[in-house]
């Protein structure tokens, strides 16, 4: 999965998680609040993976450019 895909799925999971928490709070459902919190955390993690992939790609590209200059 690409970094953009990770970020998009992460954003979606965060939004859905927050919505579940709000509905859970409105209805008094601890289960739904918990599910929402977990889904939101999953979204944060997915976004972090996307950002890490971007950072790794950038580092590799910089290293490759530096290697080409040194040849």
Order of helices and strands: HH
The whole-number mean of residue pLDDT values reads 95
**Low-confidence blocks of residues:** none
Taken together, the total number of domains comes to 1
Largest sheet: none
Approximate helicity band:
over 70%
Quaternary state of this entry equals single chain
Kindly provide the radius of gyration, computed on alpha-carbon positions and rounded to a whole number of angstroms.
Answer: 18 Å
The rough form would be described as rod-shaped
Termini separation comes to 33 Å
Q: Proportion of β residues?
A: under 5%
The strand count comes to 0
Provide keyphrases for this structure.
mainly alpha; 2 helices; 71 residues
Write up this protein.
- This is CbsD-like protein.
- Helix 1 packs antiparallel against helix 2 (about 30-70).
- The chain has helices spanning about 5-25, 30-70.
- It starts with a helix and ends with a helix.
- It is built from 2 helices and no strands.
- The chain has about 70 residues and is mainly α.
- It has one domain.
- The longest helix is centred in the last third of the chain and has 41 residues, at about 30-70.
Summary, kept brief:
Residues 6-58 form the CsbD-like domain. This protein is mainly alpha-helical and 71 residues long.
């Amino acid at each position: 999965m690409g970094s953009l895909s990770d970020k998009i799925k992460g954003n979606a999971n965060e939004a859905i998680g927050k919505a579940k928490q709000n509905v859970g709070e409105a209805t008094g459902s601890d289960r739904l609040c918990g599910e929402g919190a977990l889904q939101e955390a999953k979204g944060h993690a997915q976004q972090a993976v996307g950002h890490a992939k971007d950072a790794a790609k950038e580092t590799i590209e910089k290293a490759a450019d530096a290697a080409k200059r040194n040849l």
